[in-house]
Amino acid sequence: MRTGSIELTDVLRDLLFRFQWANSPRRPIPERITVELASVRDVEAALSCELHPDVLALVAVAGTVNSEYVGSLDDVDPLTEDARRHPKPIAPNRIAIGSHPDRHAWYLVTANGKGSRIIERDNFDGSEVRYPLVDWLDRHVDALLDRR
């Protein structure tokens, strides 16, 4: 299997380590995250999208833990399909990478791969709030750690 690596900034690597630890204590996050290129191509082809490298890093780490907020790369296609079939469906240019455990919110990214913002979509009123990925991740890690 061919793999590719994603170089991480120090800030993102630290947040991914905290995210991983908050979900299930694990080993440190390396400077580069490795992803299976065929899996990335399959998901991007199925959803007609391009995923930003920071988003790929997040779902790669989520795939190593039992995250209640973010799915693995294998979860992105079914999550997106669920979000598109929801009574208040997501826009076609949105890709779901996770959801709140009770599905009251979807965690989305844009399909064009430009920028690493998370779009938090409220499933009650359809409102969307955009966060830089590192800010969103920091907020969710803090919430997970507060519950420990």
Please sum up the structure shown.
With 148 residues, this protein is an alpha+beta fold.
SS-derived structural category: alpha+beta
Q: What is the 3D form?
A: globular
Main sheet overview: 4 strands, antiparallel
What oligomerization state is this entry in?
Answer: single chain
H/E order of the elements?
EHEHHHEEEEH
Biggest sheet strand line-up? 3-4-5-6
Helix content: 40-55%
What fraction of the residues are assigned to beta strands by DSSP? Answer: 15-25%
Topology, number of strands: 6
Number of helices: 5
What is the rounded distance between the termini? 38 Å
Unreliable spans are none
Mean pLDDT: 86
Radius of gyration: 14 Å
Write structural notes for this entry:
With 148 residues, the chain is an alpha+beta fold. It contains five helices and six strands, in the order βαβαααββββα. α1 runs parallel beside α3 and α1 packs parallel to α5. The longest helix has 15 residues. The model has no long low-confidence stretch (mean pLDDT 86).
Record the SSE blueprint.
Blueprint (H helix, E strand, L loop, with lengths): L2 E5 L2 H14 L8 E5 H11 L5 H10 L10 H13 L8 E6 L5 E6 L6 E6 L5 E5 H15 L1
Helix pairs in contact: 1-3, 1-5, 2-4
Give the tags:
single chain, 148 residues, alpha+beta, two-stranded antiparallel ribbon, 5 helices, 43% helix
